[in-house]
């Protein structure tokens, strides 16, 4: 049983991928505990397994071994269908490439987070408007993604991830496609809104400066956390 | 609104943007198929309906035919009148004659009617273009329009009329004197075959020409409104003498009707392939969409969207294309039907000419008759075909694992 203050706990996560005749061990026993409202960064070289770990934490992928708890729920025992059903309420995700739906404007993209897990009413619309205001896009709600800059698109993605008041935000290199200044503002935004919403933040990044802004910094090397920086 | 429905609508008809090319092409494909099916079935239905109207107008809804010339006795006539569904009946006799006017011969079919009763059964007045049915007597005839035109006769002209009976007299070396008849009127039904070779006369003249005495070849029967022709025919056959048999207008022209029905069904069958091809193009386009939107599909999974909901999104897209294409096709089809004659006359003026069109295609105007049943079949078929077209892309989308979809380049 997890500590009530813990929203995300992984222990002994292992993941292998076949690579030709060999087996590539990407994760070899990762342990991670994230407390409610805590911010954690994960750094590592390309191919070190950061994205694989994030996908497993999000329930998008299954570990070959190990346990995963979403708050008190043993996520590793759930089917992929059950994980999908719970994911939308439990966590939000932010990706490097934003992944906004091009046919929907910014407002509808944020609201899509609520649509996918249930109905949309006045409360959801009000929250969408509030989130867009919070990320500095109150006047840009009716703009399509093609009419927004990269930084603005990522702000919309951050608002969408927060739509369902998740316990955890998993951000996979959210500044990878942005210039340094815009990237800094996005990381500040993520840290700020997660603190306000009391959501934990797991930030995968290459940027040491961004990593240092989180409460705890982890380095993934050879399939396991090498150190707590 | 469920999100798959919402997203399908937004992807096909995005607000604030032009309609995607895929949406336009897919809807046009289905629409063209639907329009062609509607136009072809309506035109074929129009031929059938016009022929039915023409047959009923010239023969009655039921025809009683004698196996050989039959006596028009009071007993037979009271038996016919005793059938509740019968509104009126009129005896007829028919044969072939030779007409001659100014050394121009013609060999039309001649039909003799009881002038006192024929109007209750056949609305001949409706088709008169010159002269009057009232002027028809035992020494006059009414000619069909094309026949009158080919002979060059007008109302009041006199013709020589020869019958097969005169051949017997020729064999006996008797002097052959034709019967001189006056043209009392000209009629035009709108069917090339009837308009080019039909002569109408009184029953007495026909009986005289063919030596029938008081005998007739049968009766044309008009039924009361709403009466079932099949039931009426069954009732008539129960009371008629063995020498006579009643037939519905459909039975009396069964071969022709069968050909018409077969042609109509074959054309419908062949044109369904247009919709099938359109459905395949929808499948192809939606498959491309699945590939193009792989990462969006992965995102929906990452946001908590179930695989079956993702699949439903693509099925809805097929459905909406089907509905949109069907509505557009019906609109286009009815528009084409509305302007069909103008279009046909325009095309005919560039190709064979209006006269040739009438000569070979029997009708001066392209008929159309749309049955509700046909429209329902077309709508159901096209919507189902388009929805099924979305199934394969939907299945492909549902099979995508979010983690792999997000990772795709």
Structural commentary:
The complex is a heterodimer of chains A (229) and B (409). In chain A, 48% of the residues are buried. Chain A has helices spanning 50-57, 80-90, 106-117, 122-134, 150-162, 180-197, 208-212; strands at residues 6-19, 22-35, 39-44, 65-70, 73-74, 91-94, 168-172, 200-204, 216-221, 224-228. With 229 residues, chain A is α/β, with parallel strands linked by helices. With 409 residues, chain B is an alpha+beta fold. Chain B folds into 2 domains: 3-51 and 257-407, no CATH class; 90-218, no CATH class. Helix content of chain B is 57%, strand content 18%. In chain B, a hairpin with a 2-residue loop joins strand 3 (98-101) and strand 4 (104-106). The longest helix of chain B is centred in the first third of the chain and has 39 residues, at 21-59. The radius of gyration of chain B is 31 Å and the shape is elongated. Chain B starts with a helix and ends with a helix.
What keywords describe this structure?
heterodimer; A: 229 residues; alpha/beta; Rossmann fold; four-stranded antiparallel β-sheet; 7 helices; globular; B: 409 residues; alpha+beta; twelve-stranded mixed β-sheet; 12 strands; 57% helix
Shape of chain B: elongated
Radius of gyration of chain B, in angstroms, nearest whole number: 31 Å
Largest sheet of chain B: 12 strands, mixed
Shape, per Cα inertia axes of chain A: globular
The whole-number mean of residue pLDDT values of chain A reads 87
Tell me about the largest β-sheet of chain A. 6 strands, mixed
Topology:
The complex is a heterodimer of chains A (229) and B (409).
Chain A: E1 6-19, E2 22-35, E3 39-44, H1 50-57, E4 65-70, E5 73-74, H2 80-90, E6 91-94, H3 106-117, H4 122-134, H5 150-162, E7 168-172, H6 180-197, E8 200-204, H7 208-212, E9 216-221, E10 224-228
Parallel strand pairs in A: 3-8, 3-9, 6-7, 7-8
Antiparallel strand pairs in A: 1-2, 1-4, 4-5, 9-10
Chain B: H1 3-12, H2 21-59, E1 62-71, H3 74-81, E2 86-96, E3 98-101, E4 104-106, E5 109-113, H4 118-121, E6 128-131, E7 140-144, H5 145-151, E8 158-162, H6 165-171, E9 179-187, H7 192-196, E10 198-202, H8 203-210, E11 215-223, H9 229-239, E12 244-248, H10 249-252, H11 254-292, H12 294-302, H13 307-338, H14 340-350, H15 354-361, H16 372-389, H17 391-399, H18 402-407
Parallel strand pairs in B: 5-10, 7-9
Antiparallel strand pairs in B: 1-11, 1-12, 2-5, 2-11, 3-4, 3-8, 6-9, 7-10, 8-9
Helix pairs in contact in B: 1-13, 2-11, 2-13, 2-16, 11-16, 11-17, 13-16, 13-17
């Amino acid at each position: 049983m997890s500590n009530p203050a813990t929203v995300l706990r992984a222990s002994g996560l292992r993941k292998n991928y076949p690579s030709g005749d060999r087996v590539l061990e990407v994760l070899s026993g990762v342990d991670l505990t994230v407390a409610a409202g805590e911010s954690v960064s994960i750094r590592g070289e390309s191919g070190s397994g950061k994205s694989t770990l994030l996908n497993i934490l999000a329930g998008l992928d299954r570990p070959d071994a190990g346990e995963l708890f979403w708050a008190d729920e043993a996520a590793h025992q759930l089917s992929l269908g059950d994980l999908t059903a719970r994911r939308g309420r439990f966590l939000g995700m932010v990706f490097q490439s934003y992944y906004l739906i091009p046919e929907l404007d910014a407002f509808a993209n944020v609201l899509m987070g609520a649509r996918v897990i249930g109905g949309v009413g006045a409360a959801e619309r009000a929250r969408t408007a509030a989130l867009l205001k919070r990320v500095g896009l109150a006047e840009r709600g009716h703009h399509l993604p093609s009419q927004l800059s990269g930084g603005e698109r990522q702000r919309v993605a951050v608002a969408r991830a927060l739509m369902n008041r998740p316990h955890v935000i998993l951000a996979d290199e959210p500044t990878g496609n942005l210039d340094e200044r815009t990237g800094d503002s996005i990381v500040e935004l993520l840290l700020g809104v997660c603190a306000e919403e009391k959501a934990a933040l797991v930030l995968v990044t290459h940027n040491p400066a961004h990593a240092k802004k989180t409460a705890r910094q982890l380095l993934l090397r050879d399939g396991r956390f090498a150190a707590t920086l | 609104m469920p999100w798959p429905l919402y997203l399908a609508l937004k992807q096909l008809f995005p607000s604030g943007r032009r309609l995607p090319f895929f949406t336009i092409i897919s809807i046009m494909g289905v629409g063209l198929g639907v329009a062609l099916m509607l136009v072809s079935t309506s035109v074929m239905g129009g031929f059938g309906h016009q022929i039915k109207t023409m047959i009923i107008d010239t023969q009655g809804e039921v025809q009683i035919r004698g196996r050989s010339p039959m006596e028009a006795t009071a007993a037979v006539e009271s038996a016919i009148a005793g059938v509740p569904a019968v509104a009126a009946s009129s005896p007829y006799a028919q044969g072939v004659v030779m007409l001659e006017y100014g050394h121009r011969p013609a060999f039309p079919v001649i039909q003799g009617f009881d002038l006192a009763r024929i109007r209750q059964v056949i609305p001949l007045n409706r088709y008169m273009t010159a002269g009057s049915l009232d002027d028809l007597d035992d020494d006059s005839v009414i000619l069909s329009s094309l026949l009158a035109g080919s002979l060059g006769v007008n109302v009041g002209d006199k013709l020589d009329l020869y019958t097969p009976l005169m051949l017997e007299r020729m064999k006996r070396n008797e002097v052959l004197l034709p019967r001189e008849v006056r043209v009392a009127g000209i009629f035009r039904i709108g069917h090339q075959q009837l308009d080019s070779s039909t002569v109408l006369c009184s029953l007495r003249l026909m009986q005289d020409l063919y030596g029938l005495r008081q005998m007739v070849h049968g009766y044309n029967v008009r039924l009361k409104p709403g009466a079932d022709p099949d039931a009426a025919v069954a009732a008539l056959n129960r009371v008629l003498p063995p020498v006579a048999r009643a037939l519905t207008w459909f039975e009396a022209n069964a071969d022709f009707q069968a050909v018409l029905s077969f042609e109509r069904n074959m054309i419908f069958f062949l044109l369904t392939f247009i919709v099938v091809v359109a459905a395949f193009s929808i499948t192809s386009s939606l498959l491309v969409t699945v590939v193009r939107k792989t990462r969006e599909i992965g995102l929906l999974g990452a946001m908590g969207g179930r695989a079956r909901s993702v699949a439903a999104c693509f099925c809805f897209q097929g459905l909406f294309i089907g509905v949109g294409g069907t509505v557009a096709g019906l609109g286009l089809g009815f528009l084409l039907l509305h302007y069909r004659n103008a279009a046909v006359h325009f095309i005919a003026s560039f190709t064979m000419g209006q006269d040739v069109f009438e000569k070979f295609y029997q009708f001066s105007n392209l008929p159309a008759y749309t049955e509700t049943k046909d429209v329902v079949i077309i709508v159901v078929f096209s919507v189902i075909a388009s929805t099924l077209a979305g199934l394969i892309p939907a299945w492909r989308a549902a099979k995508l694992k979010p983690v792999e979809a997000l990772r795709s380049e």
